[in-house]
């Protein structure tokens, strides 16, 4: 079989690499196969995080996606070569040695591959329901032993990306109070809603157009303004900076 000049040059370039075993690498290393988009995120300075308790199957999370980690075995020996360059990369260099000496720092016959999966978010509601918010005057709010979770706490315990967690917090109508994510206790939520509906009725407003600033001024003496606004967000839709539509 005849070969082209390009094929011969490529063969010579590969053959010019001289491999040798260097000092064994310290610590444990694993190989991880990443799709190009994840590699680009790492190159851009973003992080990938492995999450999971001891009794959970570990997942890997990017800034907006969650992946199952699966170990794959291979019959070929995979070599750890720091700074290794491919023939295509060497071709692009202006000058390089005819013989390239490369040290091997380790090897493996398996690697970890990623499979996109649904975020594991059931635990999020369970954690937040341990201590629902009953209002600023509740006796529980004075108890420092009651469980509360910051964003960092949730990132440590929930097997999902930060973006997926934040979206689910919105779905659960959770709100951040004093730096902690909370779900309103049902009776307290109904109390807030009752204040709003009574005000709308007394002022003869349309439920499709509730003025936010006026609502906060009128109900502020009864409940914290951020709670009134959160109630409107739960049951309404902001249509301008100063108002909410609660009719759908």
Polypeptide structure, described:
By secondary structure, the chain is α+β, with helices and mostly antiparallel strands. It has 9 helices and 12 strands. A 5-stranded mixed β-sheet has the order 2-7-5-4-3, covered by helices on one side. Strands 10-12-11 form a 3-stranded antiparallel β-sheet. Helix 7 (186-202) crosses helix 9 (225-235) and helix 8 packs across helix 9. The radius of gyration is 29 Å and the shape is elongated. The model has no long low-confidence stretch (mean pLDDT 84).
Within the largest sheet, what's the order of strands? 2-7-5-4-3
In angstroms, what is the radius of gyration?
29 Å
Q: Give the overall shape.
A: elongated
Q: Which percent bin holds the helix content?
A: 25-40%
Strand content: 15-25%
Mean pLDDT: 84
- Write down how many β-strands occur, each being a DSSP E stretch of 2 or more residues: 12
Helix/sheet category: alpha+beta
Let me know the largest β-sheet: 5 strands, mixed
Tally of individual helices:
9
Keywords:
248 residues; alpha+beta; 3-stranded antiparallel sheet
Summarize the structure.
This protein is an alpha+beta fold and 248 residues long. The protein contains nine helices and twelve strands.
